[in-house]
Design brief:
About 40% of the residues lie in helices and about 10% in strands. The chain has helices spanning about 25-35, 70-75, 100-120, 120-130, 135-150, 160, 165-175, 175-205, 220-225, 265-270, 270-285, 320-330, 345-355, 400-405, 410-420, 425-435, 445-450, 480-490, 500-510, and strands at about 5, 40, 205-210, 240-245, 255-260, 285-290, 300-305, 315, 335, 360, 385-390, 440-445. Strands 9-6-3-2-1-12-11-10 form an eight-stranded parallel beta sheet. The chain has a four-stranded antiparallel beta sheet with strand order 5-4-7-8, with no helix packed on it.
C-alpha cells in the first residue's frame, strides 16, 4: 500500500509554554494530516533528554520526556492551576526551544500536578506503577539519586550506589521516597497523555512512527541498572565506546561515547533486554524506525580514551538472530531499518533477511560531499517498493537549505534531474521526487512543506549548541497547505483512505478529475 508521512518532532509544535507537547496542538496536527490524506506521522524519540538536549542521548530508553507533558490539558483535568505555570519565563523566542528555561521551570510546575495525581487518582497511579514496574522502579530511583547528587553522572556516585549494593539501595529508597514518587508520577502523566494522543491519531486514521536510538547513554538508568548488558570493565567504565568512522558528516568520524553492548551475554539470555525494549516501543507506536540498523551486523568500537573516532575498528555484531529472537517473542512487527551510512554486503543481506524496508534519501543522490553520492540506488527510479523514501532526514538540511548550501554543480544536477521550478517552490519539486517513486512510504520534513531553509534544520551531526530547537509558528498547519498536500497525495496515489468512508471515495474521484 502506497502511503505518505510527515516528519514533525513533537517538540517543534507551537505552544505558549516553551516547547511542543502532547496536547491540543498535537491533536490539531493529527487533524491536519487527516485532512491532507497523509497516513503517517513520524516523530523523533520521545525519551527524556540529557545534556546536549539530544533525544538520542537519554536518561532512559523506556521513559517519556517530561517536557512533552501538556500543561493546559493538566489544568483541564484539575491537576494544575493556570497561575502555577502561566507567566513563567519559558523562553524569549517562540521559534526556538529554550531547554535551559524548561529545565529551570518545568519540574517545579509538574510537582504540583504529581501531588494531585497521587492524591486524587491513586488507583490509576498505582496501576500504572505496577504495569511498568520492570523499568519504572529503577528509573525513578536513578533520577532521585541523580538529583541528590546535583545532577552528577552515576559513575561518580559512592561505590555502594554505583555497584547497586542492596543495603545502599534500600537506604536510598527510604531517604528519597518522596522524590521517587515524583518521578514515577511524572511518567504516569506522560503516558496518560501519550495514550490519549495515540488513540486520537488512530481514530483519525493516522499511524505514528516512532524512532528508537540504537545505543543508550552511559549516564542512564539503563546502564546503571543492567551493567551486565554492556561492555564495562571491573570499575563499571566502558572499555570501548560507540561512534562511526569518517563520512560525509564528519572528516574525523563521530565519537558518540555510548557504551557498547555485551552481545555474548545478551545472546545467552535470549536477547531479553532487546525484547523488552522493542516490546515497550511497539506498545507506543504503530511503526518503529530503528536507528543505526547496521550496528546489529557490525559496530564501530573506539578506545574509551580516544578524542576522535580515527582509532576505532569494526567488530562483528549478532546479525539477524536478534530479530529471529524478537519475532518468536513478539510476532510480526512493522519496523523500518535506518540502513544509511557505510554499508557492506553482509548488512545488505541482513536487511534482506529481515524483510524490513530500508531508507532512501534523495539528497544523497546528488551531494558530492557525501561518500554515498553518485550511488544510483539513491535516485528515485531505483527505489524498491519495500523502502521508505526521504528528501532528507532530521540529520540532513531542509530541501531549500540543501539547494542553497550544496556545491553549485550538485544543486544544478538536482534541479535538472527533478525539473525544479522556482515559481511553485523548488522544495515541492524535491518532494515530488520521492512521492513519485515506487517506495511504499514517502516521508517529508514539515520544514520542507513550509518551504524553510537551513535556519530550520533540526540537527547537524557532530555539532553542539543549536540542534533540536526548531519550532513551527502558530497556524503552520493551514487548510490551504492541507489542500495542496492532499492534491499531491491524490496525484501520486498516496492518499490515505478512511476505512468505510464513501465520501472519501467520492472526494478522491473528484480530485482525480
Amino acid at each position: 500500500m502506497r502511503r505518505a508521512g510527515v516528519l514533525m518532532p513533537i517538540t517543534s509544535l507551537p505552544s505558549p509554554w516553551g516547547v511542543g507537547t502532547l496536547g491540543a496542538e498535537a491533536r490539531a496536527f493529527v487533524d491536519f494530516l487527516a485532512r491532507s490524506g497523509t497516513a503517517v506521522w513520524q516523530v523523533l524519540p520521545v525519551v527524556p533528554t540529557s545534556y546536549g538536549d539530544s533525544p538520542y542521548q537519554s536518561f532512559s530508553t523506556f521513559a517519556g520526556n517530561p517536557y512533552l507533558i501538556d500543561l493546559d490539558d493538566l489544568a483541564e483535568e484539575g491537576l494544575l492551576r493556570r497561575c502555577e505555570y502561566a507567566g513563567r519565563p519559558w523562553g524569549e523566542d517562540p521559534g526556538r526551544v529554550d531547554y535551559g528555561a524548561l529545565y529551570r521551570e518545568r519540574f517545579d510546575v509538574l510537582a504540583h500536578a504529581t501531588g494531585r495525581l497521587v492524591r486524587d487518582h491513586a488507583a490509576g497511579y498505582a496501576a500504572f506503577c505496577e504495569r511498568e514496574a520492570a523499568w519504572l522502579n529503577d528509573y525513578a530511583l536513578f533520577m532521585a539519586l541523580k538529583d541528590a547528587h546535583g545532577g552528577a553522572s552515576w559513575i561518580t556516585w559512592e561505590t555502594p550506589l554505583r555497584r547497586r549494593e542492596g543495603a545502599a539501595l534500600d537506604e536510598a529508597r527510604d531517604r528519597l521516597a518522596n522524590e521517587i514518587v515524583f518521578w514515577k508520577a511524572v511518567q504516569c502523566l506522560f503516558f496518560r497523555q501519550w495514550e490519549r494522543l495515540h488513540a486520537y491519531a488512530a481514530e483519525a486514521g493516522v499511524s505514528i512512527m516512532g524512532d528508537l536510538p540504537f545505543y543508550v547513554a552511559l549516564d542512564s538508568a539503563d546502564v546503571w541498572s543492567r551493567p551486565e548488558q554492556f561492555q564495562l570493565d571491573e570499575n563499571l567504565m566502558p572499555r570501548e565506546i560507540a561512534g562511526v568512522p569518517p563520512d560525509g558528516f564528519s572528516a574525523i568520524g563521530q565519537l558518540w561515547g555510548n557504551p557498547l553492548f555485551a552481545w555474548d551475554r545478551m545472546k545467552a539470555d535470549g536477547y531479553e533486554w532487546w525484547g523488552d525494549r522493542i516490546a515497550a516501543q511497539l506498545r507506543m507506536y504503530d511503526i518503529l524506525r530503528i536507528d543505526h540498523f547496521r550496528g546489529f551486523d557490525s559496530y564501530f568500537a573506539i578506545p574509551a580514551e580516544a578524542v576522535t573516532a580515527a582509532d576505532g575498528r569494526w567488530r562483528n555484531g549478532p546479525g539477524i538472530e536478534v530479530f529471529r529472537s524478537l519475532e518468536s517473542r513478539l510476532g510480526s512487527c512493522e519496523i523500518v531499518a535506518e540502513d544509511l551510512g557505510y554499508l557492506t554486503d553482509s548488512v545488505r543481506q541482513m536487511l534482506a533477511d529481515s524483510g524490513f524496508p530500508g531508507m532512501k534519501v534523495l539528497e544523497f543522490a546528488f551531494d558530492t560531499r557525501d561518500s554515498e553520492a553518485g550511488d544510483d540506488t539513491y535516485l528515485p527510479y531505483a527505489y524498491p517498493a519495500n523502502s521508505v523514501a526521504y528528501v532528507g532526514t532530521h540529520d540532513n538540511d531542509t530541501a531549500l537549505g540543501w539547494l542553497q548550501t550544496a556545491p553549485e554543480k550538485d544543486a544544478e544536477v538536482a534541479r535538472e534531474y527533478l525539473h525544479l521550478d522556482p515559481r511553485e517552490g523548488e522544495n515541492w519539486g524535491m518532494m515530488r521526487g520521492i512521492w513519485a517513486s515506487a517506495s511504499d512510504l514517502a516521508v517529508v520534513q514539515m520544514q520542507d512543506l513550509l518551504g524553510l531553509g537551513s535556519e530550520a534544520r533540526m540537527n547537524t551531526p557532530s555539532t553542539l549548541g543549536s540542534n533540536w530547537c526548531w519550532r513551527a509558528p502558530r497556524g503552520f498547519a493551514s487548510d490551504e497547505l492541507a489542500a495542496r498536500l492532499r492534491r499531491q497525495m491524490t496525484l501520486y496515489h498516496r492518499l490515505a483512505p478512511k476505512a468505510g468512508s464513501q465520501s472519501q471515495d467520492a472526494s478522491e474521484k473528484s480530485e482525480e478529475n
